[in-house]
Specification:
The chain starts with a helix and ends in a 5-residue tail after the last helix. With 172 residues, it is α/β, with parallel strands linked by helices. Helix 2 packs parallel to helix 7 (148-159). The mean pLDDT is 95. Helix 5 (113-116) links the parallel strand 6 and strand 7 (121-124). It has 8 helices and 8 strands. It has helices at 2-7, 39-50, 64-73, 85-96, 113-116, 130-135, 148-159, 163-167; strands at 11-14, 26-27, 33-34, 54-58, 77-79, 103-107, 121-124, 138-139.
């Protein structure tokens, strides 16, 4: 069932805190927010792009650390301060000419429920709240910020038969 849903994905949309990060927010002594991102997740995002699959991030917070990471990974669209994630999601559908079944969304908390209920592949990270896990099509084996995003990306690329093509240069 997951493979069938994964075959249709044209864009992966991500939450940040608890998905791209482990959910911890650290402030330096100067009040600067520090976030930890998993390198494997980032590399997976690059593989997605190489396969022609777009990416977007929707988060209720605003963060300079996130902005730097988004630029590094060349994420196609970023929505910060998006307390109404559904509004951002609808903009994605319109902007990219996509339908619900074209989208994989990865979330971990209550703010993510409206999107998870609509997308073609709804994913919960392992350490998400129960309400999210209950409606997800797939719950990752890995925790948020600990490779969960990469786990989902690998599933999508393999289901679409794109894994070999985007990883061939590393297997020589």
């Amino acid at each position: 069932m997951i493979e069938q849903r994964a075959k249709k994905i044209k864009m992966v949309v991500l939450d940040v805190d608890g998905v791209l990060t482990d959910g911890k927010i650290i402030y330096s002594g100067f009040g600067i927010e520090v976030k930890n991102f998993d390198v494997k997740d980032g590399f997976g995002i690059r593989l997605l792009h190489r396969a022609g699959i777009k990416t977007a991030v929707i988060t209720a917070k605003k963060s300079r650390a996130l902005l730097k990471r988004i630029k590094e990974l060349q994420i196609n669209r970023l929505y910060q301060n998006a307390f109404d994630k559904l509004k951002a999601y609808n903009d994605i559908l319109k902007r990219f000419g996509l339908m619900n079944e074209d989208i994989c969304y990865i979330g971990d908390d209550l703010l993510d429920l409206p999107l998870l209920k609509r997308v073609g592949l709804a994913v919960s990270v392992k350490d998400a709240v129960n309400e999210v896990k209950e409606i997800a099509h797939y719950v990752t084996e890995k925790k948020g910020g600990k490779g969960a995003v990469r786990e989902v990306i690998d599933i999508i690329l393999k289901a679409q038969g794109k894994w070999e093509k985007v990883t061939v240069r590393y297997r020589k």
